[in-house]
Amino acid sequence: MDHFWMPFTANRAFKAAPRIIERAEGMWLYSDDGRKILDATGGLWCVNAGHGRQKIADAIAQQAMKLDYSSPFNLGHDIGFEFAERLVKYTPENLNRVFFTNSGSEAVESALKIALAYQNARGKKGKYRFIGREKAYHGVNFGGISVGGLTYNRKGFGPLLPVDHLPHTLDLKRNAFSKGLPEQGIERADELENLLQFHDPDSIAAVIVEPVSGAGGVILPPIGYLKKLRELCTKHDVLLIFDEVITGWGRLGASFASNRFEVEPDMITSAKGITNGTVPLGAVFVRDEICDTVINAGAEGAIEFFHGYTYSAHPIACAAGLATMDIYDEEGLLERASGEIGDYWQSSLHSLNGEPGIVDVRNYGLIGAVQFAAPDGSLVGSKIMQRCYEKGMSVRAVGDIIAFSPPLTIEKAHIDQIVETLSSIAREMFAR
Ligand SMILES: Cc1ncc(COP(=O)(O)O)c(C=O)c1O
């Protein structure tokens, strides 16, 4: 146990009482002590089509024997081009260029660097600053934690990039127990105008936000908020990046939140559900003109963008991704959350309103969060997460919030189990 330094884990506590998963199938994880556990978070918001998909496993195996690897620098392989062409069928109209990475964190770093490269290429070198948002999670690399807004992920790692932050949009006083998007709070987008004026728009390269923030506690955008950000970015000639690492691939009932909310950013970052979590792969979807500007600014025959990864467009990851897209299309999974099952999810989750200790329920598509009343430092989320596991359900805790992002293949009986488990724990822990 000592040798594996586990990520984002209380290592000592875990190793004292390990939770080991041996195999997974459909909606279920199976532990080494013979228990069957409902995967209410689709792994880490990534197993959108459910576990153990034969089609993806076959594609991975076949690709490993056909072409396991070749360099993506100055060499190409068909499957990389094929996958890029397939992916842009799901992206907003003007985002037709794909830069491949291996993770969401790398997609964020790449998007930030593309933003700077673009501003340089069009002669706007003074635009070097970014604007992120409080409570945002954009992965763990230095660019990502700079634009990110979670204190524990940032402190101790400075100095970071020149970034300022928008206020987050969580507002329990006005919006608790909203079904879908909250009605109050569009004015929080106006803070962007203030930040832009404070720093001077000519110094800002890009604004980056998650359309729905996930790891910060499932925080939804107030109605009209994202459109307002788009208007302000366009008005001040600033790029808008949507980090859709979680909100992509059907989570909100469409391929991307951008499509669901009808707001087109200049770039989208993606990962996770892009391969159903089977093989690491991330991507940045880039507006055509941004890519063309960077490429055309380079000298003929010279590398235009000094950036890329050994495993960009890894053939096995691309094969997994293509098979994943086939499953999404064949089973209508990208739209499923906006249909009947999404309605059932909403009404079931909100039936927890009134249970002891619960101060908010939030949902959209097949994402959800239940927030508990707890004094700071009480570790209530971790305790509930542990209790859920003991009762046969895997969830994510973010502070005092329990977050859900189940596979999009979820059925009503699974939703019932989620709600029953949580209400029994609420009564056990909070009833007087
Ligand atoms: C919005 C967002 N961006 C970036 C990341 C980082 O992705 P990864 O863990 O693949 O580096 C995550 C991970 O949860 C995320 O939720």
From TrEMBL:
Keywords, sorted A to Z: Aminotransferase, Pyridoxal phosphate, Pyruvate, Transferase
Pfam family, one: Aminotran_3
Keyword Zinc: no
One term of GO molecular function: pyridoxal phosphate binding
Enzyme class: transferase
GO biological process, one term: biotin biosynthetic process
Name of the molecule in the record: Omega-amino acid--pyruvate aminotransferase
Species this protein is from: Marinobacterium lacunae
